[in-house]
Amino acid sequence: xxxxxxxxxxxxxxxxxxxxxxxxxxxxxxxxxxxxxxxxxxxxxxxxxxxxxxxxxxxxxxxxxxxxxxxxxxxxxxxxxxxxxxxxxxxxxxxxxxxxxxxxxxxxxxxxxxxxxxxxxxxxxxxxxxxxxxxxxxxxxxxxxxxxxxxxxxxxxxxxxxxxxxxxxxx
Length: 171
Hints:
about 170 residues, Subtilisin Inhibitor, about 20% strand, alpha+beta, 2 domains, 4 helices
């Protein structure tokens, strides 16, 4: 057998070994990532096993709105997983629905985002509290197109009586 033939036979054997290692790695990683963000976690080490339920994460917020003209309002809002709403927010049901419909309701506008330079008004809203067990401290303004779109997604929360996606304009 020549050296070249031996080298050809060694390459497939090495590739087979690498493939086996890669498959083993995938098998190990396959069990990762089974939990979804925001979903309650369950411990299989509990006495009742994996069917045990956990309490839903807290969803309690304080919304403060400054209309930019000297009027400030503050509301409390709680949205439970089962659809029950509470607090003194004047449009609590629609506010909870708007939050649930938003993909990432508290995320700020990406700093690299190109935004239209339109002014939507002097309003400023802050939302603080806990949503699905995560601390919330978000600020909403209407200073450009991106910020207006962000505001509009949560309009029923920030400006009760508004519809999601519809720019409420200046107050």
